Amino acid sequence: xxxxxxxxGLMDRVREQLAEQPGEATPSRVAAALAREGMLLGxxxxxxxxxxxxxxxVGAGLLEPLLTDPEITDVLxxxxxxxxxxxxRGVVKCGVVIADEPAARRLAQRLAGSAGRRLDDATPYxxxxxxxxxxxxxxxxxVAPRGTCISLRIPRRRAFSVPExxxxxxxxxxxxxxxxxxxxxxxxFLISGGTGSGKTTLLAALLSWADPSERLLLVEDxxxxxxxxxHVVRLEARPPNIEGSGAVTLRDLVRQALRMRPDRVxxxxxxxxxxxxxxxxxxxxxxxxxxxVHANSATDVPPRLEALALAAGLGREALHSQMAAGLxxxxxxxxxxxxxRRVTGLHxxxxxxxxxxxxxxxxxxxxxxxxxxxAAETLANRLGM
Length: 385
Hints:
The protein is α/β, with parallel strands linked by helices. It has three domains: about 1-55; about 60-155, Beta-Lactamase, CATH 3.30.450; about 160-385, 3-Layer(aba) Sandwich (Rossmann fold), CATH 3.40.50. About 35% of the residues lie in helices and about 25% in strands. The chain contains 13 helices and 15 strands. A nine-stranded mixed beta sheet has the order 9-8-10-11-7-12-13-14-15, with helices on both faces. A hairpin with a 2-residue loop joins strand 14 (about 355-365) and strand 15. Helix 11 crosses helix 12. It is elongated. The termini are far apart.
């Protein structure tokens, strides 16, 4: 049965009738479609049905209120059944329910269509950005055997400030000067962490401290960074079209950004061959570059970059030389089991006797305190502290 109490088969036939002719699902059109199916309803029942059909046929449908909730960062559909959301403290069920698999499939296809992408049996998955900036990923059966899966990552409507992040417990007040110092000293740095750990939020907050006279070139797969800064230029990657052509990669965009008179080149997420061009830029006079990278710890960042660079054809020795000369620091941010996002500390990149770079602890944050590590002096000197 549907939400309105009508048999699902009848609802499907009403939808098909409405889809045959363009136009809004008005009460008169819905009542006429029901009459053709031999079903008569009262005015209030028809209005309830109109509301249900409109919610399915327009925009994000039942998910629309969730996408406009300022506290929600992620909306997850795991096939028919309850929808899950993340309000910053882990994933929980909400009151929205997807009635059946056809409803989940229609929702996924409508969202993909609004992003100008195809989603069907021939192309059973999609990764795209909706017009409002929300990041969409969807997978259809049989790739998702238990039903259509939809993952929506909602962009922040505004950047958090550094004081706000301190208030939220992301890092202690004593750590703020070190983080702000990365930007003010024009150090080159990466923010590492896992999925959903808050890397983009932290990077946007720090970029807001960049000098207003600087020109920031943001290179992203999908636009998520929203720094509070007066001079921001955005470049976004583009996937291939249905014929498999027309793709614009992050590596393409980093190269273009370097020709656009940047004061800082920012890569929203370093995850491919673009690491080679970013490191080359940091070694040829483009100070202050930064970005994020997926890694479980700061010490995992050099091996992670090594793997990305090797896949792009840059040898291990050359990659470590580029890192040692061009990259100054790594900021690591974690998400604990309660869902709280916290900066664990800053690491300096140190080149060993073997020529290879490792991340060495500069300062770490614990229980509101700052603990100095082996590389604290090196890091302080670079930040002018």
